[in-house]
Amino acid sequence: MSLSSFPHWRIVHSEASLGWGGQEHRVMAELLGFQRRGSSVRLVAHPDSQIMARARAAGLNTRPCTFDRRLLPFEILRMALWLRREKIEIVNTHSSRDGWLLGLAARLARVPMVLRTRHIDVVDRSPKISRHKFTTLADHTLTTSDKITRDIRSRYQLAASKVSTVPTGIDLDLFHQTGPTAELPVRSGPGAPPVIGMVSVLRSWKGHSTFFAAIQLLREAGREFQYVVVGGGAPVEVYAAKARSFGVEDRVKFTGQREDVADVLRALDVLCIPSTAHEGIPQIGLQALACGTSVVGSDCGGIPEIIREGESGRIFHAGDAAAMAERIAETVDQRERSAQMCRAGRAQVERQHSLDSMLDRLSEIYLQRLERTAAARSQSAQMASFTGGSLLKLAVKKKV
């Protein structure tokens, strides 16, 4: 399909986070994807954030903002003027602070469509106030999983037409079964034990403690596996100490953050996603399926929506280390069954979760919402014209 066949929009994404995880990956995927399709895209982010550095390195148009609460009124007005000057048609906010700042600025600037994306399943501390981020300051809400969509609709009493589930799309050319494998701090070659790994940001709710507890149980059962933890976001020493508390520090190798994620996934025999809270649809799960890597995941959030029990992977109850250990051993022992699941997982991602399918779905939402906004404004303008004309005639009549 040629670039001329895609609608071209002027789009702004905002992200107040300083870190680099699945949410920031998603923002970059949308920015770069729509830029490739011919849209004019911009990022508003903190000048010291990782996403700002990566966006600049990618040659994207960026605008720094500190999201300082003390400067909020000034920043809102400044941002509103910028949005009007740039003739922005779509604003998509991703975190709490930028949701308020860009949401208010977009309303002042009369941006045709304001979106709010909720990436993880969290409960806002002040629902009555937070509701405005999904109603007053947003025309439509996007989520990354059906579970988050259900929770958002229930929590804020939103109609089905106001919320859409759009999981993050995967680059199927990058995440593929064939390709190089990463060098990891493990033994390789014939006779080397299987490699079991976690690939995620180092956060408390990602389930590392469950992973370490499962390793302890597998060791006690005499299973000879190798284990790696890939990811940054917190000091590795903190998580090494957690491994030590379970007596498995000699079994687990920490690599820190890696950029060669596809190569890492192809080097693993089993990817584990033991999240205990907040999870939407984890991109690493889709990436692993695309790479043909076996996946064992918890039943947290949207994980079971993609790691379908007995079809594309294996599921255990979140926090249950014994069940996790059992599913890991089962995955390694039942090689042919696991290979079937890997093939089904790849086909599933190809059908439903490619990068292009995500961009196509977002384009549909943009078109629908912009058409409704244009119709509503046209009706409003006609009403204003009719009312103004009627008042003028009445004024003239009374004067006569």
In short:
With 400 residues, the protein is α/β, with parallel strands linked by helices. The chain contains 14 helices and 13 strands.
Structure characterization notes:
With 400 residues, this protein is of the alpha/beta class. It is 47% helix and 15% strand. The protein contains 14 helices and 13 strands. Helix 2 (50-57) links the parallel strand 2 (40-45) and strand 3. The longest helix has 45 residues, at 355-399. It is elongated.
| Quaternary structure of the protein | single chain
Distance between the termini: 64 Å
List low-pLDDT spans.
383-392
Strand order of the largest sheet: 3-2-1-4-5-6-7
The counted number of beta strands is 13
Shape: elongated
Average residue pLDDT: 92
Helical segment tally?
14
* Rg (CA only): 24 Å
The largest β sheet comes out as: 7 strands, parallel
Features:
single chain; 400 residues; alpha/beta; seven-stranded parallel β-sheet; six-stranded parallel β-sheet; 14 helices
Helix-strand layout with pairing:
Layout: E1 10-15, H1 22-36, E2 40-45, H2 50-57, E3 61-64, H3 72-85, E4 90-93, H4 96-108, E5 113-118, H5 127-134, E6 140-143, H6 146-156, E7 163-165, E8 195-199, H7 208-220, E9 226-230, H8 236-245, E10 252-256, H9 261-267, E11 270-273, H10 283-291, E12 294-298, H11 303-306, E13 314-316, H12 321-333, H13 335-352, H14 355-399
